[in-house]
Design a protein that fits this description.
The chain is built from seven helices and 14 strands. By secondary structure, the chain is an alpha/beta fold. Helix 5 (229-243) packs antiparallel against helix 6. The N and C termini lie far apart (144 Å). Mean pLDDT is 89; it is low at 25-39. The protein binds zinc ion (2 copies).
Length: 351
């Protein structure tokens, strides 16, 4: 009996030791999780920048073609000046230990007007020390790839194609738009997330190093033009799920078309006084699925987002213009007929 009790006590003691071990292991795991690299090793940067306003009279006030903001020593935000293109797109350069990544090439092809390649290569450190450069696009619209030609024949530079087949093939998306891809820059990994909707080729990029989310024309402080609403809703949900448990420092898009009060600048304006800041937030990304779900298919201003289908608006405007033309013609024809009738009546009474 005593022997049995002793054995039971030993079993209980062993169980208590193993429980304590389990608890200690759990506590260590929890500590490890709360201090995981994804949360604690985000490299900081600064968005303290005033973007060039452009000008009311660009000829009278000459502007530098490209504005460069160093977010940190390895991350650059470039913007093409409003006076050179009213699109004034943003271009992003991320330098890693073995490779650098250029996201988009802007709206101006001519290197004499817009020396983009020269500027980028200079930022990377000219000569043999500069890393290989990979040029990618958020999507195929010309204002994001017009500068491709400047990079086409440079040594150590690869330009990824902008059509849907090239995008799918390069990132290896067999089940597009599902799945994720990664770009390896050495000490820096960038996730690629398919985000079609604005355009069928659109992808967004997430830099694990800085926590920056590059959203192209999918999300930006501007008119959000949506070609395919269903695809856009799916993309917004995909992105919300992706960022949900990740630390996002800033969301950086392709353009700014709003002023600080959230009003749009006139379409095509080359002067943006008191412009809205470029950066948006993880909260904005998380709010996007509900906002796009409320889109009426033509034009919806949710207060935070301005959603538009420019093609449908154009068709509606064309139908309206045609209707006005038909009405005016009908009124004119009726007027001419009435005048003729009146003239012939007058002629009859005179004879
Ligand atoms: Zn676009
Ligand atoms: Zn654009």
């Amino acid at each position: 009996m005593a022997l049995k009790e002793h054995r039971n006590l030993r079993i209980i003691a062993n169980e208590m030791i193993s429980m304590r071990f389990m608890l200690r292991t759990l506590a260590a795991l929890a500590l490890l999780l709360t201090t995981s690299p994804a949360r604690s090793q985000i490299v900081d940067g600064s968005m303290d920048v005033h973007w060039n306003d452009g000008a009311e009279d660009c000829k009278a006030s000459p502007q530098p073609p490209i504005q460069i903001h160093a977010y940190n020593p390895q991350t650059f935000i470039l913007r093409e000046n409003l006076c050179y293109t009213f699109e004034a797109p943003f271009i992003y350069l991320l330098a890693g230990s073995t490779k650098a990544l250029l996201i988009d090439t802007g709206d101006v092809a001519d290197p004499n007007q817009m020396p983009l390649a020269k500027t980028v290569m200079h930022l990377l450190g000219d000569g043999s020390r500069s890393p290989a450069l990979l040029v990618v696009h958020t999507h195929r619209h010309l204002d994001h790839r017009a500068g491709d030609g400047q990079f086409a024949h440079l040594a150590n530079v690869q330009v990824v194609g902008f059509d849907i087949d090239s995008v799918r093939r390069y990132y290896n998306f067999p089940d597009w738009p599902n799945g994720l891809a990664q770009i390896d820059l050495g000490d820096r990994t960038v996730d690629v997330i398919p985000t079609p909707g604005h355009n069928e080729t659109e992808v967004s990029f997430f830099d694990r190093n800085t926590g920056l989310f590059f959203s192209g024309d999918f999300l930006m402080p501007a008119r959000l033009l949506i070609d395919d609403t269903d695809a856009d809703i799916d993309s917004a949900k995909r992105v919300a799920e992706f960022v949900n448990d990740r630390q996002v420092s800033f969301v950086l898009g392709g353009h700014i078309e709003l002023d600080a009060a959230g009003e749009t600048f006139p379409w095509g304006s080359q002067y943006h006084p008191k412009e809205h800041v470029l950066q948006m937030t993880k909260g904005d990304l998380l709010a996007l699925p509900a906002a796009i779900s409320s889109f009426n298919g033509f034009y919806t201003n949710t207060g935070k987002f301005i959603l538009m289908n420019s093609m449908r608006i154009l068709i509606a405007e064309a139908i309206l213009a045609a209707a006005v033309l038909v009405s005016v013609t009908w009124i004119l024809v009726a007027y001419i007929r009435r005048r003729r009738r009146a003239r012939s009546l007058r002629a009859q009474t005179q004879t």
